[in-house]
From TrEMBL:
The keyword Mitochondrion does not apply. Residues 17-131 form the Response regulatory domain. The modification 4-aspartylphosphate is found at residue 66. Signal peptide: none annotated. CDD domains: REC_OmpR (cd17574), trans_reg_C (cd00383). Residues 144-242 bind DNA. The keyword Ligase does not apply. Transmembrane segments: none annotated. This is DNA-binding response OmpR family regulator. It holds the Pfam family Response_reg.
Length: 245
């Protein structure tokens, strides 16, 4: 993984904190070098226990997290982060590329899953895409700041959502997905379109969308196995069933 000279792809990066957690210095040092070159404030740690300490104190916007770590596994680190309602975007790294392994990471709360060996340039682009998404809220118009679709109310300024008046406990990504779908009721989107509009990616694993839709349904549907709000459109993708007000 040699450090290249593609400075033009990094021109919009800002000094945002990115925590890289990997016990293999040949991986973490190169990733850190790419991120630093892109203008990010990158910090490297090599074990899960220290990763939690640094995350709590340093408050990074993005965490690049290896699954296999000494002390505490990457999945356990992620579980503790999400239990604390952490909003940091998390990219899991793993040498295991089977679909089931990816789904486990996504179910625990990862935003993306990258299989080793990987291109550090591509990883940097994924970090950039995540941060662009945070800036634009997946393309959702922020004026007015409140929108209602069926029993769902979304306040984009406060980043809060309600189901029949009761506040929902959503992850950052679940909120973005719900806000986008609720802002476009009745319109069907493919998984690729949702990856682009909500995640800000022009590439990625479509199972990311599948898992997040399933997790969202578990929080907003009376019966997640028979959804009435986020509907599956055969051979297309998903649409929100409510009517915008």
């Amino acid at each position: 993984m040699a450090l290249g000279s593609d400075r033009k792809i990094y021109s919009r990066a800002v000094a945002t904190r990115v925590l890289v957690v990997d016990d293999d210095p040949t991986v973490s040092n190169v990733v850190s070098a790419y991120l630093t070159k892109a203008g990010y404030d990158a910090r490297v740690v090599a074990d899960g226990v220290l990763a939690l300490e640094v995350w709590q104190q340093w408050k990074p916007s993005v965490v690049v997290l290896d699954v296999m770590l000494p002390g505490l596994s990457g999945l356990d680190v992620l579980r503790r982060m999400r239990a604390a309602d952490d909003s940091a975007a998390v990219i899991m790294l793993s040498a295991r590329g089977e679909e089931e392994d990816r789904l486990v990471g996504l179910e625990v709360g990862a935003d993306d899953y990258v299989v080793k060996p990987f291109s550090p340039r591509e990883l940097t682009l994924r970090v950039q895409a995540m941060l662009r998404r945070e800036e634009r809220l997946g393309g959702v118009d922020l004026t007015p700041t409140k929108l209602t679709a069926g029993p769902i109310t979304v306040d984009t300024a406060a980043r809060s959502a309600y189901l029949s008046g009761a506040e929902l406990s959503l992850t950052h990504r679940e909120f973005d997905l719900l806000a986008f779908l609720a802002a476009h009721p009745g319109k069907a989107y493919t998984k690729a379109e949702l990856l682009r509009r909500v995640w800000g990616w022009d590439f990625g694993d479509s199972s990311t969308v599948t898992v997040h839709v399933r997790r969202l349904r578990e929080k907003i549907e009376v019966d997640p196995s028979d959804p009435q709000l986020v509907l599956t459109v055969p051979r297309t993708g998903y649409r929100f069933a409510g009517v915008a007000e």
